[in-house]
Amino acid sequence: MAIEYEWRGAFEDEEANQLHAEGFDHKYVNDDWNEILARLSLGWVTARDRQGLVGFVNVIWDGRVHAFIEDTLVANRARRQGIGKRLIAIAVQESRAAGCEWLHVDFADHLGSFYFDACGFRPTDAGLMQLR
């Protein structure tokens, strides 16, 4: 399957919402992803095959030296083909090109081998506070 990757690739909100619902196993939500990304993101990476959007990762940032990986998603039908790893590699490359010095990610425990082994992140101490 040929996959095309694009930094700041165009997409329809509908397809991003479908991918989020599938990837995070929640009900479909009608979010305006294009508006959200325009306000908050350094950029994002899309992955497409002939059927449509199969991968996505969002890179938010502080406007200076810190970037943050959010919403790494690969469609169920396209998993285990290296798409997630390539999404992250492009996000790393573009974050570096934008002048960022640090790229952060947080994730569920079961994704540790993906981010540490496949993508090259290293473990750090961090904190989290639930607000609601």
Description:
The protein contains four helices and five strands; from the N terminus they run E-H-H-E-E-E-H-E-H. It has 132 residues and is an alpha+beta fold. The chain has a single domain, classed as Gcn5-related N-acetyltransferase (GNAT) (Aminopeptidase, 3-Layer(aba) Sandwich). It has a five-stranded mixed sheet with strand order 1-2-3-4-5. Strand 3 and strand 4 form a beta hairpin.
Number-wise, the strands total 5
Whole-number radius of gyration? 14 Å
Instruction: Note the main sheet.
Output: 5 strands, mixed
CATH superfamily: Gcn5-related N-acetyltransferase (GNAT)
Number of domains: 1
Mean pLDDT: 95
Helix count, DSSP H or I runs of 4 or more residues: 4
User: Based on helices, strands and strand pairing, what is the structural class?
Assistant: alpha+beta
Which descriptors would you attach to this protein?
single chain, 132 residues, alpha+beta, five-stranded mixed sheet
Concise summary:
The chain has 132 residues and is α+β, with helices and mostly antiparallel strands. Helices cover 31% and strands 27% of the residues.
List the helices and strands and how they pair.
Blueprint: E1 4-7, H1 13-23, H2 33-40, E2 41-49, E3 52-61, E4 66-74, H3 83-97, E5 102-104, H4 112-118
